[in-house]
């Protein structure tokens, strides 16, 4: 019967379509007008339903008459899912437990509805590697004023994924403030509470790369979408990297909609608030705002102490209270740095067989503070620029209109505006008693020249390098 069906189908569709979508089908059995066919994947099944259901029906009705029915046996296998072949079952009282799902052809109206009852949530479980770091858990995420909203929203989401109004949950904030940690913690807790839920953590970079690969490799875009659309809790880290990637944004949009509609949880992190994100489609941005956006801020002193203590405790080292307090007092803006100091401290003390003394802590903190935020002053900039052009400071500040000196002066003003917090007026008064309009003019001139003059552009780049640290 199947052979005859194939014969008929082959005559009515394209050779490529036939080869791709009908040759892989294996007829399994025929029982009282019901033909069971085995298809390689759920995606395959859906594609058939979507694109070839009419021709399939015609073929079957031709061969078996009006009462013809078709049953699918869906194998679960593809690169993204587990290797175990599985039969989709329908939990129905009057059927043997292992019988394949029954799809009746409705005699009048073949519509998309056909496929919906087929997909029974929970029956097709696939194994997905979650990519979660178990150390990034809530227990290790110290609470403080700076992260209270994000942390408690994260907890709520983890306890009831998809079941809160925090969907998506957007965690944003500067570098090293715990976005990645918190995002993992939510995933870890979901896995703990709901082992059956499919959780996936993915960095946006990896997502972009996977999408690129999928599109390149003979158009696996659909497989890519399908893979992501079956995730229960999807965590995408550093979503700001989608900026400018329009194709990947489209794919993410589709995935987001499908997940959101089905009550699946989406968690995003970003270094900016949604309003400040650039080159991201409006429709995506507006969805980012559907749920809750929670900002992580720099931790206060108390929280820094707690973070340090927790860290040291986990590393099994004892450090005098005054050393901990010293570090917490001086490293203020970034948790990653805080941890960097601890790592350095432990390494140094092991290496030199030294105690965790305050002196040692001071040297390390000093280095950290110097390396990370050397405050650039207008003075310092003038010196660097003068030295670069081999003129002296007095000449730079003088009234001379010689072209190369004017340029040097303008560059000093430009970098002062860019790298210091000084006002235009204050910069002007420091660089040879000019007024704020002169400084403004200098900044514009530098912008223009950088765009048009190659040599000048090189000056800007060279000096930038000298001023950076
Ligand atoms: P981000 O992703 O925002 O750049 P991370 O999540 O990578 O920052 O955090 C940097 C480091 O600081 C990580 O090692 C993380 O465990 C730690 N950290 C950040 N916030 C906290 C916190 N509240 N409690 C404990 N550790 C934290
Ligand atoms: Mg991060």
TrEMBL record:
Main location: cytoplasm
SMART domains in alphabetical order: AAA, Bac_DnaA_C
Organism superkingdom: Bacteria
Positions that bind ATP: 176, 178-180
Domain AAA+ ATPase: from-to ranges: 165-302
GO cellular component terms listed in the entry, alphabetical order: cytoplasm; plasma membrane
Gene Ontology biological-process annotations: DNA replication initiation; regulation of DNA replication
Stretches for region Domain IV, binds dsDNA: 350-469
Region (Domain I, interacts with DnaA modulators): 1-78
Subcellular location: Cytoplasm
Keywords: ATP-binding, Cytoplasm, DNA replication, DNA-binding, Lipid-binding, Nucleotide-binding
InterPro entries, per database record: AAA+_ATPase (IPR003593), Chromosome_initiator_DnaA (IPR001957), Chromosome_initiator_DnaA-like (IPR020591), Chromosome_initiator_DnaA_CS (IPR018312), DnaA_C (IPR013159), DnaA_dom (IPR013317), DnaA_N_dom (IPR024633), DnaA_N_sf (IPR038454)
GO molecular function annotations of the record: ATP binding; DNA replication origin binding; lipid binding
Domain Chromosomal replication initiator DnaA C-terminal: 377-446
Family: Belongs to the DnaA family.
Domain notes from UniProt: Domain I is involved in oligomerization and binding regulators, domain II is flexibile and of varying length in different bacteria, domain III forms the AAA+ region, while domain IV binds dsDNA.
Subunit note: Oligomerizes as a right-handed, spiral filament on DNA at oriC.
General function of this protein: Plays an essential role in the initiation and regulation of chromosomal replication. ATP-DnaA binds to the origin of replication (oriC) to initiate formation of the DNA replication initiation complex once per cell cycle. Binds the DnaA box (a 9 base pair repeat at the origin) and separates the double-stranded (ds)DNA. Forms a right-handed helical filament on oriC DNA; dsDNA binds to the exterior of the filament while single-stranded (ss)DNA is stabiized in the filament's interior.
Name this polypeptide is given: Chromosomal replication initiator protein DnaA
């Amino acid at each position: 019967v199947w052979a005859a069906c194939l014969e008929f189908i082959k005559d009515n569709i394209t050779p490529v379509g036939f080869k791709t979508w009908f040759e892989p089908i294996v007829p399994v059995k025929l029982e009282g007008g019901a033909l069971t066919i085995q298809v390689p994947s759920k995606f395959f099944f859906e594609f058939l339903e979507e694109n070839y259901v009419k021709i399939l029906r015609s073929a079957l009705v031709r061969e078996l008459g009006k009462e013809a029915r078709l049953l699918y046996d869906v194998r679960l296998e593809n690169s993204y899912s587990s290797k175990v072949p599985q039969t989709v079952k329908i939990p129905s009282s009057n059927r043997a437990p292992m019988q394949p799902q029954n799809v009746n052809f409705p005699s009048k109206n073949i519509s998309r509805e056909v496929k919906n009852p087929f997909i029974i949530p929970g029956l097709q479980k696939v194994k997905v590697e979650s990519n979660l770091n178990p150390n990034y858990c809530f227990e290790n995420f110290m609470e403080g004023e700076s992260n209270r909203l994000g942390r408690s929203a994260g907890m709520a989401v983890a306890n009831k994924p998809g079941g809160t109004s925090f969907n998506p949950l957007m965690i944003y904030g500067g570098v090293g403030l715990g976005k990645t940690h918190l995002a993992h913690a939510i995933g870890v807790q979901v896995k703990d509470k709901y082992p059956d839920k499919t959780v996936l953590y993915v960095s946006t970079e990896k997502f972009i790369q996977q999408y690129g690969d999928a599109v390149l490799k003979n158009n696996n875009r659909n497989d890519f979408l399908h893979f992501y659309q079956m995730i229960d809790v999807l965590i995408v880290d550093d979503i700001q990297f989608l900026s400018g990637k329009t194709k990947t944004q489209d794919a993410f949009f589709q995935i987001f909609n499908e997940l959101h509609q089905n009550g699946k949880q989406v968690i995003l992190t970003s270094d900016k608030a949604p309003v400040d994100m650039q080159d991201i489609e409006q429709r995506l941005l507006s969805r980012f705002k559907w749920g809750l956006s929670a900002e992580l801020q720099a931790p206060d002193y108390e929280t820094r102490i707690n973070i340090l203590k927790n860290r040291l405790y986990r590393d099994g080292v004892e450090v005098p209270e005054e050393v901990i307090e010293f570090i917490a007092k001086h490293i203020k803006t970034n948790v990653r740095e805080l941890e960097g100091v601890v790592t350095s401290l432990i390494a140094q003390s092991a290496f030199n067989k030294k105690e965790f003394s305050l002196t040692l802590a001071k040297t390390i903190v000093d280095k950290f503070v110097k390396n990370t935020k050397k405050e650039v002053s207008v003075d310092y900039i003038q010196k660097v620029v003068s030295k670069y052009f081999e003129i002296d400071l007095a000449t730079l500040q003088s009234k001379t209109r010689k072209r190369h000196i004017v340029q040097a002066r303008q560059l000093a003003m430009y970098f002062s505006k860019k790298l210091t917090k000084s006002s235009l007026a204050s910069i002007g008064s420091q660089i040879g008693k000019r007024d704020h309009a002169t400084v403004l003019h200098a900044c514009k001139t530098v912008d223009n020249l950088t765009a048009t003059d190659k040599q000048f552009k090189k000056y800007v780049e060279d000096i930038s390098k000298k001023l950076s640290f």
